[in-house]
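Below is one record:
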Amino acid sequence: MIRNYFTIAVRTLLRNKVFSFINIFGLALGLSCSILILLWVQNELTWDRFHPNIERLYRVYINRPGDNGLYTQTTVQLPVWEELKSIPGIRYVSPTGNEARNTTLASGDIRVEKLFHWVGEDFLKIFPFAFIEGSRDQQLDDASSIILTASTAKALFGEEKALGKVIRVDNKADL
């Protein structure tokens, strides 16, 4: 019985090729768009959920007028950060750079191109990342401090310890 249904379906598809193509193409396009939207929504809802105490983390945005209406930016001026620190209930505040940017890190003759973020001194008190070398308490006390991922440290220094070494950033600053 089911074999008969498939036979009839194939004959109908072959008899009306253009109509069948439009319907199958539309169905495939609709399904693929729905799956992509579902994946995008899932990513937006879960991308930072690995942090403990996620319900206590907030990101500050500023809305300001622009040429085409309201413009939202994530870059907040430092006086705003200082004011946020004085509000009761806010324990840590950490300004960050607007976005990650490709940066050249150099140690001696070795140069590596990596994504780079500028962050404030409270960043590691807010986000509990694990350390291979050094301690969490002393990492960002100095303005010339830098924290490297394990892969970046290995690319720059090989098997040597990276703690205490100087890295040149974009041939402008030593950290």
About this structure: Residues 17-46 form the longest helix (30 residues). The beta strands are 62-66, 69-73, 101-107, 110-116, 168-169, 173-174. The chain has a mean pLDDT of 85.
